[in-house]
Amino acid sequence: MGRVAELAGVSVRTLHHYDAISLVRPSARTVAGYRAYSAGDVERLREVLAYRRLGFGLREVAELVGDPSADAVAHLRRLRGLLLERRDRADAMAAAIDRELEARARGLKVTPEEQLEMLGARLYDSIGGAYTTTQRTEPRIAAQIWDALGDARTVLNVGAGTGSYEPADRDVTAVEPSAVMRAQRPAGSAPCVAAAAESLPFEDRSFDVAMAVSTVHHWEDPAAGLREMRRVARRVVVLTFDTDEPGWQDRFWLTRDYLPEFAGVLAGFPSLAGMADTIGARAEPVPIPWDCADGLFEAYWRRPGAYLEEHVRRAMSVWTRVGPEAERRAVRGLSDDLESGRWAERNSDLTDLDTADLGLRLLIA
Questions:
Q1: Which of the chain's ends, N or C, has fewer CB atoms near its CB within 10 Å?
Q2: pLDDT tens digits for 170-186?
């Protein structure tokens, strides 16, 4: 027990307490009769300590590690998701601090309300909470997705977020690893399971179709997640992004002229052809309407001024990923070009377009 305590960075007293409350009980004995930890005990202890260091209470930890539907891999994926969620929160807080420092350097007054909003509970509301106000179901994209669902009655929505694009006329089950996103799902929406795409807690062929909308790029292992979707459903429908075409980052003026770092955000993202092969799918282009209601990254391709709005950008994970310096430079450059007329001159071919193909693709298997 002493050796395990030393390796884990906790006291022997803590381990005795976990034993007393049946949270982690050593199941082995040394030759001398002392309690010892088996490999399985150490694995459970690792999970307990990880959840504790993420701030969970002992009662919550007991429920999490006692979940019969979660194996060691499922716990690791859940822990990773929680850590990434905290990383995003930390990145957003750092960006908020940078904005306040910049304001103070320019001699601008920062009110107490703004200070609390930047570093308090409302900060994450402004990031994740913006999804419910700017990322909504776009009817024309939804029609294409729902048409691909065909006659499916039971639908699994993987990486469901706040519930956009879930068809109201089907029996939907949602899967979403983020507690922040689950909390924002509207009342009356489909039941939502806390799980990761790579380890879906369902039997083989439990659903007519599994769908995933603009979420694959957030997964730890996209190929594994797609295989899981294929396992639990007879058909698969995935809205994703095409990075196969040479020079794909130049399709959109924002990434071409102002945010070259976007290419790095998708570095390592699997090819569209590879994803299609994984599930045996065909790909359909998904045109983005000029007045797209869904605030996805490319939605404002004919409304460039929207990218100058803080609340619009905060609902797009791209800006957190590229960092505050790249964001400030891109916004400043776009603002200057809009004011001078350079943007309009450079993108005059967009004026009369009703839709644009910017790489959004629907995989149908």
A1: N
A2: 999 999 988 777 877 88
